[in-house]
Structure formats: structure tokens, C-alpha cells
Backbone:
């Protein structure tokens, strides 16, 4: 941890610096500037390729090479220079235009028409595409790999514990048994669904001028099909073209992405709380690290801190994303600036999720199933067999089956002997009676293991 980290206001850049550093190249001010530079240069190159733009002759390989190097070699010194320009003119995107004019003039000695930099563009033509590329990169290289990692680790748990019986708890009370693998598979299936949805969400972009109508473009070059030109440029970036916008791309796809992340996060939060609860009743033990301290006063403590950390950070991430998802869909008339400051916090929201994901992975790696406690817990609750017994009684048309078992078991301590003795009194076929006598809290599991095999 460096001095900046130790004095940072946000824990993202402080306490959790190492966990979130991967996001700096994307969501920092430097990262945003770098992507904006990329869009500006690619737009300039695209313009030069159109025969109708005689004032901007097609670039030769030497010019293309220099422009590409300006984009690829963009560094912190360049970014700081842009910020100096911005301090003077109070406009971030205009400062990028001035920077590029200066940079290209130095490199090419004005061998191209510099006025075609940012030609017919409104600021959001650049910004929306920069954010689209940032989110495309974030989804592909950060979020999907982390989701995949979580899913794979949970899948290992499902397979490992698919035959290990546990006492279910509905309303916190003893209920029909399941297996630990099946219960964890419930989360696995839900996460896999969200991942599938997440991958399919279109990332949109536009480059169509001040209010989305190519007004300036059309005046300057009326013979160019700017609608088609825009589509080709946007899709060439590997994103989907949005043909209908105001001054801004309306951010619907960002809302869709955020909503999907929120759903995945809430499923993971649900998982965290269940695992935390299983740890609290000793269904799971945690590996002991001799160098760790669980409490500043209680030496015996081994706290489920990873799952707690994950839960807290998921909550922070979701609350920010929820506001973003709601707010970004709304813009007054053709443009207001209220989305700008919100978009700048995308990295904050994603960072809290990344911290949560890494924490839960750490927590999972420390878990060990406690079969002894699971067995003991099941053995103490023979009353759960009231369900299959009264069901078999119903099958054989024994009246008031449910009420008989309710009177016998509800709120009472039931053991194996009481259950077996009651089964012997039933007027049902011997084969079905034997079937009930073979039931125990440990093997009354239905299709639990078979269902797990399907998801694995």
C-alpha cells in the first residue's frame, strides 16, 4: 500500500486498492481519456476513407501509423496535459480535440486538415462510444471471468456435497431433508441463468451529431449517406448501432447491464447469507490460519468475514447501480448533463462488486463440511418423517391423516422408536409399511442427488 492508498477517502483506492487495481485502466480519468482518444482517432481515420471528403485526402500508411501510435502510446503525461487544457477552457472533450491537434501537428507538421478532428461531433458522440468500449471490455475481461470463477467454485461444491444429507429449514424450523449439494445447486442454476442473459445484452453506440439528426454533417456533405456511415463506424467498434437518439445515446443498455449485475449480486448475496448461517450452526467449518486473529478480545473466534465482506460490498454496489439504472434512462428534452457525473461513477459501482466477488471466492476456499454435525442434526429430528407417513396414509384413504400426524408430532420431541411404533399401527399394505420403516431423516431425500446430476 502506497501513501496515496493510505490517505485515500474511498476504500476502493485505499484498503481495497489491490483488489480493484485491475479496473483503473478502464474507469479512471486516465482510462476514460484513453478511450476518448481512441474514438476521436478512429473517427478521423474513417472520415479520411470516404472519397466525398476531398478536403481530407485518404491517409497513407505513414500517417495511419503515426495516428495509431498516438492512440496506443497515450500515457499519463498526455492525460495530465489534457487536464491542464481543461482547466483553462472548462470542457473535457474540447480539451481532447485541442490535445490531438497539437499532438498531430507536432508529428505530421500539418500534412492533414486538422479541422476534421472531432468533425461534426457532439461530445456524447465521443463519450457514449468510449463508455461502450469500456463496458464491453469490463464485461468480457473482468466481470464474466469473475462470474465464471464463482460459478465454477460453486459447481465444485455442488458435486462434492451432492449426496450429503442436511436438515432443511423452512421459516428457520426443521423441515424435509435435502442435500447440501442440491441446496447449493439452487444458487448455481440461478447464477448460470444470469450469466447467460448478461452475455447477450447488446452494447449500443451512436455517432450522429448534436441532436441525432446529422444536421451539420448534411450541410457540409449532403451527398454522403451519414446514417449508413454512422452505422458502419459504430458496428466496426464491435458494438451495436443505435439509430434513434437525442444528443445522447439514451443508456438503456447500460440500465440492462446494471440490472443483470444487480440480479446476479442479489443471488450471490443470498448465497452469502445461507453459507454464513450454515457456518453459524457448524454445518461448515473454516480452515484455520494460525496467523489470523478472529477477535481483538476473544481468542477462539474464526469469523466468516469473507462472506460478510462480500455481503456488505454487494449492497453498496447494488445501491449505486440501482440509482444509475433508474437515472440513466431519463434526460430532459434533447440533453441535460445529469447523466455525466453519474456515468463517471460506473467504476465505483463495479469496484464494489469486484471486491465482493473476490471476497466470496476467498470464503469458499476456506470451507470444510462438518458431516458429524449434519448427521446429529438430522438424528434429532425424526418428526420430519410425519410428511411421508401422512402422505402414504392419504394414498390409502385414511381419513384425517394430516390431523393425526399433526396431533402426534407438532411441538413434540419425536424419536425413531415413536415413528416406527406408529408405522406398525397403520392399516396399509405390508410393502408400503416396510417402505416407511426404512425411511430415516438421512435417506428421505427424494430426487435431490438426481437433480444435482442434471445441472452438473
Residues:
Amino acid at each position: 500500500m502506497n501513501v496515496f492508498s493510505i490517505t485515500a477517502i474511498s476504500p476502493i483506492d485505499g484498503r481495497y486498492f489491490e483488489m480493484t487495481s485491475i479496473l483503473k485502466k478502464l474507469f479512471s480519468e486516465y482510462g476514460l481519456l484513453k478511450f476518448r482518444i481512441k474514438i476521436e482517432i478512429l473517427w478521423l481515420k474513417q472520415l479520411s476513407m470516404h472519397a466525398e471528403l476531398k478536403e481530407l485526402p485518404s491517409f497513407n500508411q505513414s500517417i495511419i501509423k503515426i495516428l495509431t501510435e498516438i492512440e496506443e502510446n497515450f500515457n499519463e503525461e498526455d492525460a495530465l496535459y489534457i487536464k491542464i487544457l481543461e482547466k483553462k477552457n472548462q470542457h473535457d472533450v474540447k480539451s481532447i480535440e485541442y490535445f490531438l491537434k497539437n499532438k498531430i501537428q507536432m508529428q505530421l507538421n500539418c500534412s492533414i486538415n486538422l479541422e476534421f478532428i472531432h468533425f461534426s461531433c457532439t461530445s456524447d458522440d465521443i463519450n457514449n462510444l468510449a463508455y461502450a468500449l469500456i463496458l464491453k471490455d469490463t464485461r468480457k475481461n473482468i466481470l464474466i471471468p469473475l462470474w465464471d470463477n464463482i460459478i465454477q467454485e460453486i459447481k465444485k461444491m455442488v458435486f462434492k456435497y451432492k449426496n450429503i444429507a442436511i436438515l432443511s429449514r423452512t421459516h428457520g424450523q426443521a423441515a424435509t431433508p435435502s442435500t447440501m449439494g442440491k441446496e447449493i445447486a439452487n444458487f448455481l442454476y440461478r447464477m448460470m441463468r444470469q450469466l447467460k442473459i448478461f452475455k447477450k445484452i447488446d452494447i449500443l453506440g451512436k455517432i450522429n451529431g448534436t441532436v441525432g439528426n446529422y444536421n451539420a454533417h448534411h450541410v457540409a456533405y449532403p451527398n454522403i449517406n451519414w446514417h449508413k456511415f454512422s452505422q458502419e463506424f459504430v458496428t466496426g467498434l464491435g458494438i451495436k448501432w443505435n439509430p434513434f437518439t437525442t444528443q445522447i445515446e439514451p443508456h438503456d443498455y447500460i440500465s440492462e447491464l446494471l440490472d443483470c449485475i444487480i440480479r446476479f449480486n442479489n443471488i450471490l448475496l443470498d448465497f452469502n447469507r445461507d453459507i454464513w448461517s450454515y457456518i453459524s450452526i457448524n454445518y461448515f467449518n473454516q480452515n484455520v490460519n494460525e496467523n489470523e486473529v478472529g477477535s481483538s478480545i476473544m481468542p477462539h473466534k474464526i469469523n466468516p468475514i469473507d462472506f460478510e465482506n462480500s455481503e456488505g460490498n454487494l449492497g453498496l454496489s447494488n445501491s449505486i447501480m440501482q440509482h444509475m439504472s433508474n437515472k440513466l434512462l431519463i434526460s430532459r428534452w434533447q440533453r441535460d448533463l445529469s447523466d455525466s457525473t453519474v456515468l463517471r461513477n460506473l467504476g465505483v459501482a463495479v469496484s464494489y462488486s469486484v471486491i465482493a466477488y473476490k471476497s466470496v471466492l476467498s470464503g469458499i476456499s476456506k470451507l470444510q463440511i462438518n458431516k458429524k454435525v449434519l448427521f446429529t442434526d438430522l438424528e434429532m429430528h425424526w418428526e420430519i418423517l410425519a410428511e411421508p407417513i401422512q402422505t402414504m396414509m392419504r394414498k390409502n384413504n385414511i381419513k384425517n391423516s394430516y390431523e393425526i400426524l399433526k396431533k402426534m408430532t407438532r411441538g413434540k420431541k419425536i424419536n425413531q422408536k415413536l415413528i416406527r411404533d406408529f408405522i406398525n399401527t397403520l392399516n396399509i399394505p405390508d410393502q408400503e409399511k416396510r417402505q416407511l420403516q426404512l425411511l430415516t431423516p438421512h435417506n428421505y431425500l427424494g430426487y435431490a442427488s438426481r437433480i444435482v446430476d442434471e445441472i452438473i
